[in-house]
Write a structure and sequence with these properties.
Rossmann fold, alpha/beta, 9 helices, globular
């Protein structure tokens, strides 16, 4: 899974020891590496794809889910450290964007090289107070209704009582991360940031553009067809946009020796 260690936290489908750029992807609440895995087919040869594999799903289904942002990001910081000697780009969708932001903050605080570019996809800014939502503490009936309204869980899964009995604790843990996190600091992270937004997302454009306040670099903004889960419904289009962005970032860098 990982050629530098046997970390269950990182899925690297095509290890590339000669990669000059590492694209590190953080999934949304309830999400998995599935949202990013197809991108390995279209990324430039000089990019290695690294996906965060959260506990409680996939091959880690039997493991306890993470429900504390500080503990989670401390763990990810440790797991990612061997991969940060090259240029990196962080991509996070929804909750994943805030997890990536916290990992970046801790990297900066520890003096470790952070990403050269940050992509916040389908996410309100880190300073938004979500505590009033309390999605994670809803009754099972209301929780499933909320999931149905979000349109990110297949109807056949929501209607399968046995599957939902197994999966609800995982989803509750992820939503607890989302509901209880709010960044109240004032520091700006030193790189450019790109915001990806679904045209039909319930998160307002203003809430997403406010990512600018948390970075000292330039903000760019790109809209996609689809709702909050446009990353899945328009996965290839989003992947191509990520590829285009990477090539634009590194167009002036010397990559002629990449084979």
């Amino acid at each position: 899974m990982n050629y530098l260690s046997k970390s269950p936290w990182l899925y690297i489908p095509k290890p590339n020891v000669n990669a000059h750029v590492k694209l590190i992807c953080f999934p949304y609440a309830g999400g998995s590496t599935r949202s990013f895995s197809n991108w390995v087919k279209i990324l430039p040869d000089y990019v290695e794809l690294i996906m965060i594999a959260m506990p409680g799903r996939g091959s880690r289904f039997s493991e306890a889910s993470a429900d504390c942002m500080d503990t989670l990001t401390d763990t990810l910081l440790n797991e990612l450290s061997p991969h940060l000697s090259r240029e990196t780009i962080f991509f996070g969708h929804s909750l994943g964007a805030r997890v990536a932001f916290e990992v970046y903050r801790k990297l900066k605080k520890s003096g470790v090289q952070g990403p050269c570019h940050f992509i916040a996809s389908g996410s309100a800014n880190p300073g938004k107070d979500r505590s009033a939502e309390n999605t994670h503490s809803l009754s099972d009936t209301d929780f499933i209704k909320k999931l149905r309204n979000l349109n990110g869980t297949p109807p056949e899964v929501l209607e399968n009582e046995e599957l939902m009995t197994l999966f609800i604790p995982v989803l509750r843990a992820d939503f607890k991360l989302a509901d209880t996190y709010c960044y109240n600091g004032s520091e700006q992270l030193p790189c450019n940031v790109t915001v990806f937004m679904g045209l039909d997302d319930e998160i307002s454009e203003q809430e997403q553009l406010a990512w600018q306040h948390f970075f000292s670099g330039q903000l760019t903004f790109k809209k996609f067809n689809g709702d909050h889960f446009f990353i899945d419904s328009h996965n290839e289009i989003v992947g191509n946009a990520v590829c285009d962005l990477i090539q634009e970032i590194f167009i002036d860098k010397t990559l002629t020796h990449v084979g």
